[in-house]
Specification:
This protein is an all-alpha fold. It is built from 14 helices and no strands. One of its GO terms (biological process) is lipopolysaccharide transport.
Length: about 300
Amino acid sequence: MTDQSSPGAARPDPLRLETGFSGLARVGARPSLPAYIASLWAYRHFIRFDALSRLKSNYRKNVLGPVWLVLTPVLNGLTYYLIFGLLLNLSRGIDNYVGYLLIGVFGFQFTNKVVMAGGSAINNNRKVVEAFSFPRASLPIAASLRETLGYIPGYLAMLVLILAIATPDEITWRWLYVVPIVALQAIFSQGIGLLLSRVIAAAPDFLNIMSFTMRIWMYASGVFYSFDRFANRPELAGLLDVLEGNPLYQILSMLRGVLLYAESPSLEQWLLVGAWAAGAYAVGFIVFWSAEETYSREAK
């Protein structure tokens, strides 16, 4: 018998492992952008179900349910009217200030809710992100969709209040413009929510800063005052140009024009708001997708 342990003994070849099997991919790898969009489309039923089920759950948690969608902006509007309309007299020079304020408060509240819901979606669902494999963008999209659907009664209540107490100049077919304007606002807000969702997932402390950021945005959007009051101050001309380029300011201006003053939005406004909506969604989606591999690790 040959001693296999002797130096001259023949030894069996080590087991060779072939690599590069076709069809295999690294677990958790980020898919290509087209493949990611296709996977989101495959999850469209989950997105819709998640948005609707959580919306119903939120209604059941509150005794007044959807009434708060109306009460919150109305109470905010009353507060702003007392402080800025009566005490500070910022209503000077604004036709139909009550309607102007209603549109500003309801319109800003909608963007605020959609942005905050989308931005905190990953942070609020860390256990789900850690435990399951699915396109993570479905979470902020579902959260934004939930707030969009949930705010429909709020916008309807705004229209009723305008008719009841704001007495618009004229009720015309231009009121139909509200639908595409709000649709662009929803797309823009959801895009910002996707972008912030990536930021907050990486740095959860940023969520605490968001309330201050949204408050600054509110003041920069002319919610309860008009930028026209500063038109005679040439030193502010550059700042006013920047503020008037604010997409939320333009959205509120378009809503005020069609609902209060019987004015159609200009082509420049449509193009500006449309560009902001498309750009915000594209940038937010791509930034979110680019970090798809990191969300599971950040959730741990």
